[in-house]
Design brief:
The protein is of the alpha/beta class. It folds into two domains: 242 residues, Aldolase class I (TIM Barrel); 87 residues. It has 14 helices and eleven strands. The strands form two sheets. The protein has a nine-stranded parallel beta sheet. It has a two-stranded antiparallel sheet with strand order 1-2. Helix 4 runs parallel beside helix 6. The longest helix is centred in the last third of the chain and has 25 residues. 50% of the residues are buried.
């Protein structure tokens, strides 16, 4: 029938076991994407514990790290994470090299270079995806980073700056020649930002240009998305970003799905509450009360949205508890209100099941 989406490929078609990045072995082929202001150390620890094969730090300014700025150091922290990956952004080879050396000295097992962030703050400074407009300059940064460290260096990019300059295959090939050990491509151009749909098919040309592992990123929000993205792109692994917001277990579930074909349900509300409360406490401890509360509000909002959807709760109930939890100033009160919200959602689930 016209308009019917293709069936997801059968499990077993794709390699789903460990993957090698230089000297580093990943337990599986599902990566948690770096997301600024979101994938801080507490969230990465949780996602890794729940089964993600690799978790990448928030984008860290290499110059800030080299100067010892607090924000850069906090972003690059990887305490309690098995495979420590620090993503660096910058536009000067000297700073990229120095930032990479510091990250390696602090325990990073992999250095990732950001050439994919579309934010104007970065691109106006000739960093992030702006580097895809000048591949020669991009290569200078890559070579400086690779030469500065002994650990593997990876690269994250977009398809190109815009539809008229799709140059990801060329950059990927040149990066591999310079010593990069893995490439991740978000299937949009910089000018798309996050509009439209990720073009997984465009990654085929990248895969054909390189022999190192390729990771497909963009719009992977379900089990079927993961298998389709792999089949269409020819990639070796998937990277999950926004779909993990409020669902830190999802990357691990996708990894197990690719290995076994089993589609796991969302954890129970009790389990979700336990994860969310623990994450809240870790964020407060990691950042301090003022900054930690600001970071935690995003995670609490997404977690409540997910819990509400799990329970089939009405929108009014979600809005009511969301407003209470997100405006609570004191951690003790926030924890109590969070427990109240999950109790209310659980009661709604019991009513729904009884009616069914």
């Amino acid at each position: 029938m016209l308009g019917t989406p293709p069936k997801a490929p059968e499990i077993g078609v794709f390699p789903s076991g460990p993957m090698q990045i230089g000297s580093v072995t990943l337990p599986n082929r599902v990566v948690l994407a770096p997301m600024s202001g979101i994938t801080g150390t507490p969230f990465r620890r949780l996602a890794e514990r729940l089964g993600a094969g690799l978790v990448v730090s928030e984008m860290t300014a290499c110059a800030g790290l080299a100067r010892g700025e607090r924000e850069a150091r906090v972003r690059s922290e990887c305490d309690g994470i098995a495979i420590r990956v620090v993503q660096l952004a910058g536009c000067e080879a000297t700073w990229m090299a120095e930032g990479a050396r510091i990250a390696e000295r602090e325990g990073a097992a992999i250095i990732d270079i950001n050439m994919g962030c579309p934010s104007k703050q970065l691109t106006n400074g000739a960093a992030g995806s702006a580097l895809m407009r000048d591949l020669d300059h991009a290569l200078q940064l890559i070579e400086a980073t690779v030469c500065a460290v002994r650990v593997p260096v990876t690269l994250k990019m977009r398809l190109g700056w815009d539809d008229a300059s799709i140059n990801a295959p060329d950059l990927a090939r040149r990066a591999q020649d310079a010593g990069v050990q893995m490439i991740t491509v978000h299937g949009r151009t910089r000018c798309q930002f996050y509009d439209g749909c990720a073009d997984w098919s465009a990654l085929r040309a990248v895969k054909e240009a390189i022999s190192i592992p390729l990771v497909v990123n963009g719009d992977i929000g379900s089990f079927d998305d993961a298998t389709r993205a792999l089949a269409i792109s020819g990639a070796d692994a998937v990277m999950i970003g926004r779909a993990a917001q409020g669902r830190p277990w999802f990357p691990g579930q996708v990894a197990r799905y690719l290995a076994t074909g089993k589609r796991e349900r969302a954890p129970s509300l009790a389990e979700q509450h336990e994860m969310t409360a623990a994450l809240y406490d870790e964020l407060i401890e990691h950042h301090g009360h003022a900054i930690g509360r600001r970071h935690a509000r995003k995670h609490l909002a997404w977690a409540l949205d997910t819990a509400s959807a799990t329970a089939g709760a009405p929108v009014a109930l979600l809005k009511d508890h969301r407003a209470r939890v997100l405006t609570a100033e004191e951690p003790k009160i926030a924890r109590r209100l969070l427990a109240d919200a999950y109790d209310a959602f659980a009661s709604r689930t019991s009513v729904w099941r009884a009616a069914a």
